[in-house]
């Protein structure tokens, strides 16, 4: 199976993910970029090794200078594209997809994923087999960047919201990097911050020890390890390390929706005030945090590129997505678990509080997520019209499906871009209120 979307290309090994496909996308990507170097990194999956070799060869055949980062987080690819003379970057990753998958994420010169328009340009080049190869015997050039991770960490540690905090006093932190791209950088960052690190799943082999999506049900071993080692907290990241999930000292996942809210408090409480941007499906905990500091929150459609572009338009100080993706422009314009971890841990040390203390300051909400199967050719307009009529007084936005908002609750209804399903998310102060909203909306979708 091969899927291409605003998140790039993903495909299954031994099926649609072939050397020819990888090379074709590389040549097409080169064709839509101006002259200049291209950065390449991979998330650690074993298949990424041959994909990296194919990419480098294809890009060199186009006459490009290729900068090979090796196994690094996708945010590292973004950072070393944005803050160098590179004109683009490619991250070899299938994000949280299971082991039979791998893929490519394409980054522009600003370190931002391609938007819908640029993605369409890329797909057109691929479909038309566009792109030119160099006739030279020594086409292109090749550079190994051996200190990419160190550059990333140095930039994070130089952030004023991080640098102002005192070092840790040797507290233990357990790390589950699902044996992928966070295996080296997450422990290295924590050690430089003064923590003692226990590596639970951080051997860099790329072999997943469990389902790779960083959800609580997939991270039970991390919770047990936190308790076993008496750790101050636990850290989990997904294979390409752009999402951050934290566990408290009692071995409980604090909930990925809290990651952006805590990072927002870390930045605003350090005196860096300004607007905040999250997507329509993110918790209103971030709104409550921002309100404490007199700052506003604006919402953007789901998808990192959509959040980043909105942040750039209004010069937001921080933002992200509720899945654990923190975006801090002072570092670079992309979701980054390393930035999120540094910001939140700095706040804990600066205020001499525990992770549980920080979470206790957040407003308590219950979020309910569901998806409803649709017929493959269903007409969505009547469904959306029924919802619009029923909740006319609560419609806040129709930029990304329908976003309903009340004083103490909200709901987001949107059709999937890749599957015949409708996603419904609701959040309220009580679980029953959230379930009642979901139930009401679901009955309208069902007809």
Key features?
7-stranded mixed sheet; Alpha-D-Glucose-1,6-Bisphosphate, Chain A, domain 3; 4 domains; 5-stranded antiparallel sheet; 20 strands; 15 helices; 447 residues; alpha/beta
Characterization of this structure:
The protein has 447 residues and is of the alpha/beta class. It has 4 domains: 2-148, Alpha-D-Glucose-1,6-Bisphosphate, subunit A, domain 3 (Alpha-D-Glucose-1,6-Bisphosphate, Chain A, domain 3, 3-Layer(aba) Sandwich); 168-247, Alpha-D-Glucose-1,6-Bisphosphate, subunit A, domain 3 (Alpha-D-Glucose-1,6-Bisphosphate, Chain A, domain 3); 257-360, Alpha-D-Glucose-1,6-Bisphosphate, subunit A, domain 3 (Alpha-D-Glucose-1,6-Bisphosphate, Chain A, domain 3), CATH 3.40.120.10; 366-445, Alpha-D-phosphohexomutase, C-terminal domain (TATA-Binding Protein, 2-Layer Sandwich), CATH 3.30.310. It has helices spanning 19-31, 47-61, 74-82, 116-127, 148-157, 160-163, 182-192, 220-229, 257-269, 285-292, 304-314, 337-351, 355-360, 380-390, 431-445; strands spanning 2-5, 8-12, 38-42, 65-71, 88-92, 101-108, 141-144, 172-176, 196-201, 233-237, 244-247, 276-279, 297-300, 318-321, 325-327, 366-373, 395-397, 402-405, 410-415, 421-428. β14 (318-321) and β15 (325-327) form a beta hairpin. The protein is globular, with a radius of gyration of 22 Å. The model has no long low-confidence stretch (mean pLDDT 95).
